[in-house]
Write the C-alpha cells for this entry.
Amino acid sequence: MSKTSKIPPRDERAPTDWRGIAMTRRTRERYAAERRFELLGLAAVIISAGFLAFLLIAMVTNGARGFTQSELKLPINFPQAKLMLDQQRLRSAGADLALAVAPIKEATDRAAIIAFGPGGDDLLSDGAWLRVRDAIKADPSLLIRRATLLVPASTAIDSAAKDRGSAADKARVVQLQGKGQLTTSFNWSFFSGADSTDPTIVGIWGALKGSMFTMVVTLMLAFPIGVLSALYLEEYAPKNRLTDLIEVSINNLAAVPSIIFGLLGLAVFLNTFHLPRSAALVGGLTLALMTMPVIVIAARNAIKSVPPSIRDAALGVGASPIQVVFHHVLPLALPGILTGTIIGMARALGETAPLLMIGMRAFISAPPDRITDPATVLPVQIFLWSDQVSAGFVEKTSAAIIVLLVFLLAMNGLAIYLRNRFEIRW
C-alpha cells in the first residue's frame, strides 16, 4: 500500500482549507462586510462633520455681524443745548443723580435733527443718549463747547449697513456713508455692557460675570466635597450594603436630568432657606448638586488607577494610612480628578434648565458685584435673546453663542492639556 495519499478533489476538501471553495467564499464575504462597515463609519463621520460645519458656519456668519456696530457721528452744541449741569457736581458722588434728571435724551434728539435733517432722531438707537450721558460724565468740560460724538445707529440703519435691511434704509446708509457720517467698527461695548431692550447697545459682560460667580461657587463646593467623598469610598469605606447603596445612588444621580436639580434647588434653597432669588449663590449651589456626582465618579476612577504597589511601598517604609492617601495616592490621581472636574464644570457652564427653575432669567441691566446680587448666566441670556422679536437680537444671540463655545472649548482644551501633561503610564 502506498504511503502517499491521494489529494481529494477541490470540492471535497475540508471547509477549513483556505484553498477550498467554501472558505474562499466566506473570506470574500467577510472582507466585503468589513469594507461596508468601514464605508458606513466613514459616511457617519462625514455626515456628522457636515452638520457640525453647517452649525459653525451659520453661527459665525450671523455672529460676526454681532461683533460689529454702526455708529453715527453726531455733532452736539452743548452750550446751545442748555443742559444746566454743574461741572463740579459731575465730578462728585452725585453725578449719577444729576445726569439722571437732565434732559439729555431730548438734547440728543434735537442734535440729530439738526445734523441729519427731519427725522434724524429716528436714525439713532434708543440708547444713543446713554452714550452722550457717559461722555459727559467722563469729561464734564463738554458742557462748555461743541463736540462730535459717536453714537449707535438704530437697528434698521445697522441692519442696512450690514446688507440686511430694506432698499430705503440701504439708500439712506449710502447717503450717510458718502457724507462720512456713518462708520462701522468693532463692537467693544458688546463685551462691557449688560442686557438691554435695545439690541444695538446690549452686552454680555453682565451675563459673563454672573457665569463666573456661579462657576466659582460651584467649584468651591463640588470639588472638595466630591474628591473627599471619592477618597472615603475608595480608601476607607467598608464594603457593605450601605456603601453599595451609596455607590448606586451616586451613579444614578449622574444620569438624572438637570431640570430635576433645578426643582431641588427651588424647593431647598429658595422655599426652605429663603436665599436671594436669581443670585449666583443659589445658581452655584444648584449646579454643585448636579456636578458633584460627576466629580465623584471621575475621582474614584482616577484613584482606582493608582497601582496597589504604591500603597504597599508607602506602608512598607512606615507611612501612616492617611499619609499614603494624601502624599502618594491623591497626587498621582490628581490629573484624572482635574480632568473630570473640568469636564463637569464645562457641562455646568452650558446648563440652562436648572437655572431657569430658580429664577435666573430676570432682566439684569447691571453686572452683579457680589454672589448675592441678582444675576443671570450666559446660556440663559442666549435663551432670552433668542425669544426677542427684534431682528437685531438674532446676530447678538449668535455672537453670544460663539463666546460660549469659545469658553467651552477652552475648558475642554485645558482638560486635555492636564491629562497629557500629568498623565503617568504604569
Q: What stands out?
A: The CA atoms of residues 349 and 404 lie 9 Å apart. The longest strand covers residues 68-77. The chain has two domains: 68-186, 205-422. The longest helix spans residues 21-66.
